[in-house]
Specification:
The protein is α+β, with helices and mostly antiparallel strands and about 325 residues long. Helices cover about 65% and strands about 5% of the residues. It has 14 helices and four strands. It has a four-stranded mixed β-sheet, with helices on both faces. The radius of gyration is 21 Å and the shape is globular. The two termini are about 15 Å apart. About 45% of the residues are buried.
Length: about 325
């Protein structure tokens, strides 16, 4: 994949998170009072910005995240410090998410600061060198300011969708005076918003490629370490997802993760009978898998790239 396409990944996405929360907010406002479309747009923007500012605290509560003291894991702190220096950014706060699946994510806001979180499952499943490559990936998101740029690109489709939604609601009050034109306009707004969201999902996938590229640029033997880490994350997540009571809450912020937990079942289809201790065999089994038409369709609606394509890109860079 060419570098100019990878650079588009800086735009990232939390559109699903913003969309769902704003939908609830807009419905409440529409029921409570009669607001002009301009007023509604301003309120949506303000609400999204407020949500972005406080989202780190929501994530901390949802995933039971706590900060890792330096004395508890000095080696991991040293790794984050060294990779942050190579990335040219200030060292973020190092956090531990107390959830069973192996994963990691970067997040933050102006009032909460930048943070990189690893899960209990990640530290138990991956070898240390693979954890290093995963952290390099997450630091790439911080360096590229993915969260901030995502906020900018995701506000527009959110506004368009809920203007359309408001127009559809107003149609019911105008049926006697002819509300067909208003309804069609509302549908048009909502369809265009959906199209924009498809582009945002595409940019989100590019953002993952770009963060992968950053990791291999700052981690020695990065392509091998990150490939093995991603394959093992997917393989272990598939097993953990069988206990849905412990993992169903992961859907809320899954766009942040280095790998989508909901894709684990599909991505690990060829890994069922592979020994996890054979890291390279695990990677080679993924690489040997043929990408089907269904895989391509599923990827279009995903925040993360297809695992086979992702590992092939790492092999090319290696």
């Amino acid at each position: 994949m060419s570098l100019w396409k990878l650079r588009l990944s800086m735009v990232g996405t939390l559109a699903i998170i913003i969309g769902l929360s704003t939908l609830f907010f807009t419905v409440i406002l529409s029921l409570m009072s009669s607001l002009s479309l301009i007023t509604l747009g301003i309120l949506i923007v303000a609400f999204n910005i407020f949500q972005w500012l406080i989202s780190p605290y929501i994530i901390d509560a949802l995933y039971r995240v706590r900060e890792i003291p330096e004395h508890e894991n000095p080696k991991l702190h040293e790794t984050v410090e060294n990779l942050s220096r190579k990335s040219g950014i200030k060292k973020p706060r190092l956090m531990l998410a107390q959830i069973p699946i192996p994963n990691a994510f970067a997040y933050g806001s102006p009032i909460a600061g930048n943070r990189v979180a690893v899960t209990d499952g990640l530290l138990k499943t991956l070898e240390y060198e693979e954890v290093e490559a995963v952290i390099g990936h997450e630091l790439g998101h911080l360096k590229h300011k993915d969260v901030q740029i995502m906020m900018f690109v995701s506000i527009l489709p959110a506004i368009l969708y809920f203007i359309g939604f408001s127009l559809m609601l107003s149609m019911y009050g105008r049926r006697r005076n002819g509300g067909g034109g208003t309804a069609l306009l509302g549908i048009g707004f909502m369809i265009f918003s959906w199209i924009l969201n498809m582009f945002i999902l595409y940019l989100s996938r590019l953002r993952e490629y770009y963060a992968d590229r950053h990791s291999i640029a700052i981690v020695d033997d990065g392509p091998r370490k990150l490939s093995e880490g991603l394959a093992k994350i997917v393989h272990a997540t598939r097993n953990a997802r069988r206990n849905k009571k412990k993992t169903q809450q992961l859907n809320a912020f899954k766009a942040l993760f280095i790998a989508d937990p909901d894709r684990a079942e599909t991505d690990s289809m060829t890994l069922s009978h592979v020994s996890v201790s054979s890291d390279q065999k695990l990677v080679q089994n993924v690489l040997s898998r043929k990408i089907t038409t269904m895989d391509r369709i599923v990827e279009v609606f995903s925040t993360h790239p297809n695992l086979v394509k992702r590992l092939r890109a790492l092999q090319e860079l290696g």
